[in-house]
Amino acid sequence: MDLGIAGKVAVVTGSASKKGIGWAISLALAREGVDIAVADIAFEGVDSLAQTIREMGRKAVAVKVNQGIYGEVKEGVSKINQVLGQIDILVNCAAITSNIGTISKMPVPAWENEININLNGPYYWIREVMPSMAKRRWGRIINISSTGGIIGSVGLPSYCASKGGLISLTKEAALETASRGVTVNTVALGLINTGIYERDIVDPNALDSIKKRIPLGRMGDPSEVADVVVFLVSENARYITGATLIIDGAHSLNAFLP
Predict the structure, then answer these.
(1) Helix, strand, coil shares of the chain as percentages rounded to 5?
(2) How many angstroms separate the CA atoms of 76 and 37, rounded?
(3) Residue ranges per domain, the chain?
């Protein structure tokens, strides 16, 4: 099926990890004939991904960006425009979730850093790419959020606040650009089986308890998120904008059941 995106240029942030969502989204878009800019602060990872995409027959460029710094995002967009052309698709996937603690116990610098990366960063990318999309009357922006931004999650105040803010930013951007052929949507994720759960930021027993409460009986796979993103940036989803699509195996519906 022709999705109407072959030959388009996409940038996917937070795409350095082979087990990550950004990596899966990048490959899925490349399979549909999209040229890809992969952006992350971890350059070695995105450089490897860019090489993989080129081996698939698509153009690709790796860009090292700390998206918490506006100047780096602006410079990154300029480089992508020079190498691949104007950006048609933006997938804001980069985020951090290392600062676990209650509101009163979380250090203020930790709060500020997570808000900066998870909310300011996507705003910087949108700010830089949206005018060109609107001028050309075609564009797709996908913000990767979390169910934590909708229902909250104890111990993740800055993460939930940033992801909730991202959902609101999506709605604002969608309203600003709907008349110019640009759609902006959010994908809110539950538990997705990425490498993050192999780190010591989540108690294994707590994670097992959470997984048992997912009605579909398992965590999601990055490829399943990628499939949804490909649909949302395609011509098949041209009438969808300002929406928040939840991918969590119905976990958020089960949150208050015994």
Answers:
(1) 50, 15, 35
(2) 10
(3) 9-248
Architecture of domain 9-248: 3-Layer(aba) Sandwich (3.40)
Of 237, 194, 206, 169, which is closest to residue 97 (Cα–Cα)? 194
Judge if pTM exceeds 0.90: yes
Q: Which of 38, 36, 37, 34 is nearest to 7 (CA)?
A: 34
pLDDT tens profile 123-134: 999 999 999 999
159 is catalytic: yes
Packing angle of the helix pair 70-83, 121-136 (nearest 10 deg): 40
What CA–CA distance (Å, rounded) separates 177 from 104?
Answer: 38
CA distance 243 to 228: 13
Residue 185's φ and ψ, nearest 5 degrees, are: -135, 160
CB 139 within 8 A of CB 130: yes
What does the pLDDT read at residue 224?
A: 98
d(CA 228, CA 87): 20
Q: Of these residues, 70, 123, 124, 159, which one is catalytic?
A: 159
Query: Which residues, 6+ apart, have CB-to-CB distance to 144 below 8 Å?
Result: 14, 21, 91, 92, 93, 95, 186, 187, 189, 225
C-alpha to C-alpha distance for 250 and 258, rounded to whole angstroms: 15
What is the C-alpha to C-alpha distance for residues 121 and 79, in angstroms, rounded to an integer? 17
